[in-house]
Each structure stands twice: as structure tokens, then as C-alpha cells.
């Protein structure tokens, strides 16, 4: 079988398009690269969905945590503590078994026991908590002069938040938030190892990589392929977030701009 | 465990629960908590040592050594840690067996890798197939510890590398002005001062390490995740004196609470350590402590 035929058969295997049966023996390099790349579709799906939805909740939770009203502050603090204080791996397991028992009581919960919804929900809450902590830290380090100047210009309420507080918060949080995005993409590999079933062997990149490693008993081919894909994904994230960072900082004089986000000044997970 | 537990069928309410939670298998899950703590206790210092080595290598003036150090830091950071765990467990095992194979069976002519098999001579198997069960378990645990140390060593190397660069340059220059050699400057000036800069990063890393311990399950160690799945599953009266439905959700809730507790305790402990290390340092934290004392 030529490599082009393999790509046609397996490139979309992880979402159920193409050849149903996985190769069983005599694995070629092409098959491994194609299938692991096919699994990356899931990693990108989980990462993107969680990042986009988590961003909105994170902003809300960060504002709640910074609020003076204890009715808003306490739940936000607990939310952040629970999701940052416990391992994501355990959260996946707990959520999966929670959805299973909900499903047996109310069949409407059935969709949550499959990875595309259930795991995405867990990742959404998890990244929201981590990002909220980053945004909260940024919210507290907004220069006092900026908000005072906003007051002097007559900004208040929503207009002040939309025009002054929020952009400054994002600008300050962005390097750390870039790290969180990278870690979130790494965390997506946990999904299919934590209870959520890979229906008809439609798994993510690590699922296929470990499938090949188990079958060939040779870890030196599939895992470097996986590593290559993830380094590529990381570089893409850095490029996209770097572009946003430049836009957020475009009003600042060149030498005062926040430099390119360092890849890992702090570890998120 | 208790005398009252002799006839489980007749038990009710709290007594039933007390008896249920002290069965032999539940003792195994409590012991596996010990496994997790043991892993943390061994991995943390070993990873710190790996990190120190990596940071020193990355700072080296000899280019190939610096490349190895920087490469070690960069590769482990760019790839999901779980992929490394799965990779190293097989790779380390095969590396050990291959080295033993070359030493113990020099006249073995067959290739080691035959198709989908990895074949070494029986004498090179690790642990030997005749070894008792506990040797196999200990070996698996040690490979897991080594894997964790390699991965977290790279993170620690990154933190320590940054901390070494954060020590004010004037301190190094002063040491040179006093005529200290590079080695003396490193030992007497740089290393004692770098810890306060490294601690925020290292505390973060400790939290990450604590939260990575459930991954032991994926490395084939019978840890708390393994037992939570075992014990939580539906139990029928045929096989156990304590039948119950699917309780895995509650077992994982208990694990969640356990980890939250560990996190809280770590936070308090690390806060105290930070106060101690900041004492007398030329940082904002140290300055605050000085003011507290003088006021």
C-alpha cells in the first residue's frame, strides 16, 4: 500500500471517516505518522473548545474573585481552589463516573459520558480555573494610575471595564496565559486514558501512539512522532498568541513592550 | 478487623460502613497512599538533583555540554509529560535489559529486535523471571520514580537556571573582585543566594508533581487510582460480603478531596519556607520581614 493510499484511508480515521480497521501488523512509518496526526484532530478540538469557552468563564471568575461582595468572591475562590488543587486526571475520572451515574438515573445525560462533550466540559472548567487565577493576578497588578486616569476622563461602569480594565488585564496576563494554552493542549492527551472511552478506537494522538508502542513494543518511533506534532502545535500557539500580544501592546513605545512570551516562566499544571 | 464485623450481612448503617472501610482490600488502598507519598519523597530530591545538574550543564562554557543541558530542558518542556511517562517506562526498561544483555550474554547472536518483539537472553531479563513478586513490583516502582525524576528534573532545571541568572550580578562581580575563582564564586555566592529566587518556581513544581502522582496508574503501579477503580466497581453478593452498586464516583470524590488536602497542607508549608528563606535577603519579601521586626 502506498503512502498516499494510507493517508486517504487513515487521515480522518479519528473522526470516523475512512478505513475502519486499524493496521494490525507490519506497521509502516507512514501509517504511524498518518494515524498519530489523525489523532491530533481530537487534541486540537479539545484544546480550542476549552480555550475559547474557558476564556469567557475565566474573565467572569477573575472578576468574581476580585469582587468585594463575599457572595461573588467565595464561590469564585472555591471554584479556583477545587480545580487548581486537584489533579486533572482525577477530575476526568470523577466526572466520567459522575456522568455515568447521572446517565443511569436520567438518560438525557448520556451524551456527557462520551469524550467529545464530557471531557470537553471538564477541560473547560479546568482551564477556566487556571486562567481565572492568571487574570485575577493581572487584575490586581493593573497600574493605579491607569484607573485613576480613567476616572478623571469620566469613565465608569461598563465603559471603564471594556475600555480600560479589561484590555490592561489581558495585556498583563498574556504571557502567562500563553503558557496556560500550551499546557492545556498538553493536558488534552489525558482524555482517553481516564475512563472516557475511545469509541471504535477513535482516539487522540497519544492514544494511537501508545497503540503502536504496545503493538510493536518499540517506543522509539511513535513517541518521537507524537513529540514532533506537539512541538509543532506549541510553535503554532506561540505564533498566534504572539500576534495577539503584539496587538494588545501596540500602543506602547517599542522598548517598553512586553517581550515575546517566554515559554515557561511559571508552570501551570 | 473488628470483632463485630464477623457477620457482614447483619450489619446496618455506620457499623456496616466502618466494617466495609476496614476490609483487607481497603487496607491495600490505604497502603497505596503510602506508595504515593513514598514516590513524592524519593522523586522530589532526585528531580532536584537532576535539575541542578541540568542547570549547571546549561550554564556551562563548553558548548556541547551546554547544548545537552539546554536540549534536555527544551525537549521535555515542549512535549506532554504523560507522553514522556509512557515513553520512558518502556524505553528505560529496554535500555537496562539491553545493557545487561550485552554484558551477560556476549555470545548471543540473534538480533535483539525481531519484528514486534524485544528479545534478550533469559539471564538479562530484569527482573529475572524467577524473581519473587515483590521484586517485580519494586522494580516497576523504581522505573516509575526514575521516569518522574527525569521529567520533573527538566522542569526543575528550567527553574534553577532562571534562579541562577536572577542572582544580582553585582554579587558575582564583588566575589570576583575579592579574588574568588569561578568555582568558589559558584559555591559560596551563587548557590546560597539562588534558592530564594528559585522557591516560587520550585513550589509551583511541587504542586505540579503532587498532581502528577495519579499518573503512576498509567505506569502500571497499583496506586490509589487503580484501587479506587477496583473497589468502586459494582460488587455482587456472590463475590463479596459487602455488595454495593457502582461507587467509583464516590471513590474518586474521596481522591479529589485527598489531593485538595495535600495541596492545602503544601501551600501552608511552602509559605512558611518562603518566609524563612526570605529572611535577610535583598528582595522585597526580605525587606518586608525586616520591617516587621524593626517596627
From TrEMBL, chain A:
InterPro entries in the cross-refs: AA_ABC_transptr_permease_3TM, ArtM/GltK/GlnP/TcyL/YhdX-like, MetI-like, MetI-like_sf
Compartments where located: Cell inner membrane; Cell membrane
Molecular function via GO: transmembrane transporter activity
Keyword Membrane: yes
Domain ABC transmembrane type-1: 40-242
Keyword line: Amino-acid transport, Cell membrane, Membrane, Transmembrane, Transmembrane helix, Transport
Matching PROSITE patterns: ABC_TM1
Principal location listed in the UniProt entry: membrane
A GO-annotated cellular component: ATP-binding cassette (ABC) transporter complex
Membrane-related topology note: Multi-pass membrane protein
One GO BP: amino acid transport
Keyword presence, Transmembrane: yes
Name of the protein in question: Amino acid ABC transporter membrane protein 2, PAAT family
The species this protein was found in: Wenxinia marina DSM 24838
Lineage, broadest ranks: Bacteria, Pseudomonadati, Pseudomonadota, Alphaproteobacteria, Rhodobacterales
TrEMBL record, chain B:
Subcellular localization, as worded in the UniProt entry: Cell membrane
PROSITE patterns listed in its UniProt record: ABC_TM1
Membrane-topology annotation of the record: Multi-pass membrane protein
Keyword Transport listed: yes
Coiled coil region boundaries: none
InterPro entries, A to Z: ABC_transp_permease_HisMQ, MetI-like, MetI-like_sf
Presence of keyword Transmembrane helix: yes
Listed transmembrane segments: 29-52, 72-92, 139-161, 189-209, 249-270
Keyword set, alphabetical order: Membrane, Transmembrane, Transmembrane helix, Transport
Family from the record: Belongs to the binding-protein-dependent transport system permease family.
Protein known as: Amino acid ABC transporter membrane protein 1, PAAT family
Amino acid at each position: 500500500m502506498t503512502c498516499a493510499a494510507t493517508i486517504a484511508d487513515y487521515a480522518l480515521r479519528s473522526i470516523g471517516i475512512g478505513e475502519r480497521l486499524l493496521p494490525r501488523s507490519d506497521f509502516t512509518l507512514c501509517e504511524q505518522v498518518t494515524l498519530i496526526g489523525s489523532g491530533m484532530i481530537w487534541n486540537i478540538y479539545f484544546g480550542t473548545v476549552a480555550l475559547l469557552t474557558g476564556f469567557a468563564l475565566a474573565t467572569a471568575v477573575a472578576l468574581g474573585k476580585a469582587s468585594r461582595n463575599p457572595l461573588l468572591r467565595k464561590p469564585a475562590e472555591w471554584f479556583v481552589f477545587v480545580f487548581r488543587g486537584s489533579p486533572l486526571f482525577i477530575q476526568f475520572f470523577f466526572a466520567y463516573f459522575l456522568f455515568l451515574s447521572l446517565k443511569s438515573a436520567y438518560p438525557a445525560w448520556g451524551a456527557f459520558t462520551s469524550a467529545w462533550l464530557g471531557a470537553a466540559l471538564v477541560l473547560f472548567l479546568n482551564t477556566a480555573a487556571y486562567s481565572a487565577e492568571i487574570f485575577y493576578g493581572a487584575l490586581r497588578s493593573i497600574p493605579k494610575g491607569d484607573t485613576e486616569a480613567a476616572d478623571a476622563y469620566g469613565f465608569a461602569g461598563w465603559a471603564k471595564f471594556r475600555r480600560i480594565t479589561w484590555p490592561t488585564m489581558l495585556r498583563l496576563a498574556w504571557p502567562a496565559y500563553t503558557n496556560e494554552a500550551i499546557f492545556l493542549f498538553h493536558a488534552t492527551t489525558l482524555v482517553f486514558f481516564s475512563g472516557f472511552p475511545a469509541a471504535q478506537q477513535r482516539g487522540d494522538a497519544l492514544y494511537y501512539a501508545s497503540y503502536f508502542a504496545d503493538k510493536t513494543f518499540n517506543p522509539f518511533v511513535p513517541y518521537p512522532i507524537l513529540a514532533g506534532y506537539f512541538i509543532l502545535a506549541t510553535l503554532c500557539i506561540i505564533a498566534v498568541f504572539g500576534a495577539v500580544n503584539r496587538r494588545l501592546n501596540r500602543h506602547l513605545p517599542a522598548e517598553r513592550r512586553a517581550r515575546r512570551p517566554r515559554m515557561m516562566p511559571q508552570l501551570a499544571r | 478487623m473488628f470483632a463485630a464485623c464477623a457477620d457482614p450481612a447483619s450489619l446496618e448503617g455506620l457499623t456496616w460502613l466502618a466494617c466495609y472501610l476496614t476490609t483487607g482490600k481497603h487496607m491495600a488502598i490505604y497502603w497505596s497512599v503510602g506508595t504515593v507519598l513514598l514516590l513524592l519523597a524519593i522523586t522530589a530530591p532526585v528531580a532536584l538533583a537532576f535539575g541542578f545538574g541540568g542547570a549547571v550543564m546549561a550554564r556551562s562554557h563548553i558548548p556541547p555540554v551546554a547544548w545537552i543541558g539546554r536540549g534536555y530542558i527544551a525537549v521535555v518542556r515542549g512535549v506532554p509529560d504523560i507522553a514522556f511517562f509512557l515513553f520512558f517506562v518502556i524505553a528505560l526498561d529496554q535500555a537496562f535489559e539491553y545493557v545487561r544483555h550485552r554484558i551477560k550474554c556476549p555470545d548471543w547472536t540473534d538480533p535483539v529486535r525481531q519484528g514486534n518483539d524485544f528479545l534478550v537472553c533469559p539471564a538479562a531479563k530484569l527482573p529475572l523471571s524467577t524473581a519473587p513478586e515483590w521484586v517485580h513490583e519494586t522494580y516497576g516502582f523504581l522505573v516509575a520514580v526514575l521516569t518522574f525524576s527525569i521529567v520533573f528534573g527538566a522542569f526543575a532545571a528550567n527553574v534553577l537556571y532562571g534562579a541562577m541568572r536572577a542572582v544580582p550580578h553585582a554579587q558575582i562581580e564583588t566575589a570576583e573582585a575579592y579574588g574568588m575563582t569561578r568555582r568558589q564564586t559558584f559555591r559560596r555566592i551563587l548557590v546560597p543566594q539562588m534558592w530564594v529566587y528559585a522557591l516560587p518556581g520550585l513550589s509551583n513544581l511541587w504542586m505540579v508533581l503532587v498532581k502528577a502522582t495519579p499518573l503512576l496508574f498509567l505506569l502500571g503501579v497499583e496506586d490509589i487510582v487503580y484501587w479506587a477503580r477496583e473497589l468502586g466497581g459494582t460488587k455482587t453478593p456472590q463475590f463479596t460480603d459487602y455488595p454495593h452498586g457502582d461507587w467509583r464516583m464516590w471513590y474518586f470524590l474521596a481522591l479529589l478531596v485527598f489531593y485538595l488536602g495535600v495541596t492545602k497542607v503544601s501551600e501552608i508549608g511552602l509559605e512558611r519556607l518562603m518566609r524563612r528563606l526570605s529572611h535577610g535577603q535583598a528582595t522585597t519579601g526580605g525587606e518586608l520581614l525586616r520591617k516587621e521586626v524593626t517596627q
